Amino acid sequence: MIIDGVSIPDFPHAEPPLRRGRWPMTVPAVGQIFAEGLKFRTPVTFLVGENGSGKSTVLEAIAEAYGLEPHGGHRGMYATDQQRSDLGRRMKLSRTKTGSRMLGARTRGFFLRAETAYEVFTENFGKAGYGDRHPDQVSHGESVLQVLDGRFTDVGLYLLDEPEDGLSFTSCLRLLAQFELLVQRDAQIICATHSPVLSAYPGATVLEVGRHGVREVAWRELEVVDHWARFLARPEAYLSGLLD
Fold first, then answer.
1. In a 10 Å sphere around its CB, with 0-12 CB exposed, 13-18 middle and 19+ buried, how is residue 126 labelled?
2. Alpha carbons 36 and 232: distance in angstroms, whole number
3. Is residue 230 part of a domain?
4. Would 29 be classed as within a structural domain?
């Protein structure tokens, strides 16, 4: 474990102030963290929720607070404190003993964002851990996998925002195997996902993010798992009403 919790302290004199009714306080997950914080109990945590639920907003703020690039990638590419979002500047991490040693130049980990992955991989092609094949010469999924093999290898905090984008079913299973390798090396993973495959990782904490805020649920109780199970059992029942 690198961090065991996050919080958003209230700084009354900060500009702009946090105000209810204004973003990001309008995001229920952010409001809940502001009110009571959020704890991490296991080395692997999944944030699962619909589009717009706030899981990516929370994950990006954690990345900024930890010292990773909000754009994605490893530390020291192009971020400065001035580039942090207001939420990223305010978010505080409760670091473990291991995490307290990962400050500044010692920050270890990676922030993988599906929406910026190609740009980050292209900008860093040629650097250690970014693969031997240029992203233009491979599929999106292959470019993700070669970075996973090269950069997701050692102790650190690994943040992933919808990494399943571009990955096949078997590649998602390969990603889970990479998660296990990282856990064995005392790394920590926080992953925002829509994938019932990834969120099935044994022993992980699953946090459902939505209008209710953030709540821990069992994997089988996730809405996305229920929808996929019923769809695969009877796809015609879903499609008939939709297409009609």
1. exposed
2. 38
3. no
4. yes
The pLDDT of 91-109, averaged and rounded, is 94
Residue that is written with structure tokens 């010292």 in the block: 67
* Residues forming a β-bridge with 133: none
Q: What is the pLDDT of residue 240?
A: 85
- Name the region of 65 (left: φ>0; alpha: ψ -120 to 50; beta: rest): alpha
Q: pTM to 2 decimals?
A: 0.93
Total domain count, the chain: 1
Q: What is the pLDDT of residue 18?
A: 66
* Domain residue limits at 176: 3-219
Burial class (CB in 10 A: 0-12, 13-18, 19+), 97: exposed
User: 28 falls in which pLDDT band (50, 70, 90)?
Assistant: very high
CATH of the domain at 178: 3.40.50
Percentage, residues of the chain above pLDDT 90: 78
Task: Give me the chain's average pLDDT, please.
Answer: 90
Cα–Cα dist 84/89, whole Å: 6
Within-domain flag for 135: yes
b vs e for 19-50, b when ≥16 Cβ sit within 10 Å of the residue's Cβ? eeeeebbebbbbbbbbeeebebeebbbbbbbe
Rounded CA separation 188/191 (Å): 10
- Residue 242 lies inside a defined structural domain of this protein: no
Q: What is the mean pLDDT of residues 36-49?
A: 97
Residue 98 bridge partners (DSSP)? none
